[in-house]
Write a structure and sequence with these properties.
One of its GO terms (molecular function) is oxidoreductase activity. The protein is α+β, with helices and mostly antiparallel strands. It is built from six helices and five strands. Strands 1, 2, 3, 4 and 5 form a five-stranded antiparallel beta sheet that branches. Bound molecules: flavin mononucleotide.
């Protein structure tokens, strides 16, 4: 697929199925992510891959974050099922470092830009993907399960797989509505 078409027509795909995303495809997605703009080339982005049996294990971690008052059978089952919505979750992590010229926000933006590159390339090669977050990204039990340190920020859970149905149509936005000529 043409790069411009991939970028301008990409849509998120919430319902994903197998087959497994191949190691070659994952390498390509990460290569795309690593080409994001990156002030001072700090390389703040890391990806943790959750696939195979690890998906159910992550579901157990998600379920363990429920407070005792909210731990109904339905809630536990729902939490356990969340990671099973795709054959692969790429956990995007920004490892923020102290830098005299590159503040924390810029490092987070770089990792986020990398995620967008990844989504675009997934679309271009016929995969589907969706960027998800939620309160769970900051939960201490989730962070501990991934072995994160204080420097690490989970920027997103990127669910990747094969689109299970027809892709939605991207919304028609008029670029002019978002652009103004500035004059002093
Ligand atoms: C930082 C970030 C976090 C997001 N978190 C969620 C989420 O937790 N759940 C969700 O359904 N969509 C989430 N989204 C939105 C979807 O990824 C997607 O962008 C949105 O549904 C619009 O669809 P589109 O990308 O096809 O335009 C998030 C997007 C961003 C940028």
């Amino acid at each position: 697929m043409d790069a411009i078409e991939a970028i301008t027509r990409r849509v998120s795909v919430p319902v994903l199925s197998g087959p497994d995303v191949t190691d070659e495809q994952i390498q390509l997605l990460v290569s795309a992510a690593l080409r994001a703009a990156d002030h001072a080339w700090l390389r703040p982005s890391r990806y943790l891959l959750v696939r195979g049996e690890a998906l159910a294990q992550l579901g157990d971690v998600f379920a363990s974050t429920l407070e005792s008052g909210e731990r109904t059978d339905d809630a536990v089952a729902r939490m356990k099922s969340l990671p099973l919505r795709a054959p692969l979750i790429m956990v995007s992590v920004c490892r923020v470092i102290e830098h005299p010229k590159v503040p924390r926000d810029e490092q987070l933006l770089s990792t986020g830009a990398g995620v967008q590159n990844l989504l675009n390339v997934a679309h271009a090669i016929g995969l589907g993907a969706i960027w998800r977050t939620g309160a769970i990204t900051q939960h201490p039990l989730v962070r501990a399960a991934f072995g994160l340190t204080e420097q690490d920020v989970i920027v997103g859970f990127i669910y990747v797989g094969t689109p299970a149905g027809k892709l939605k149509e991207p919304p028609e936005l008029n670029p002019s509505d978002f652009v103004t000529d500035w004059k002093s």
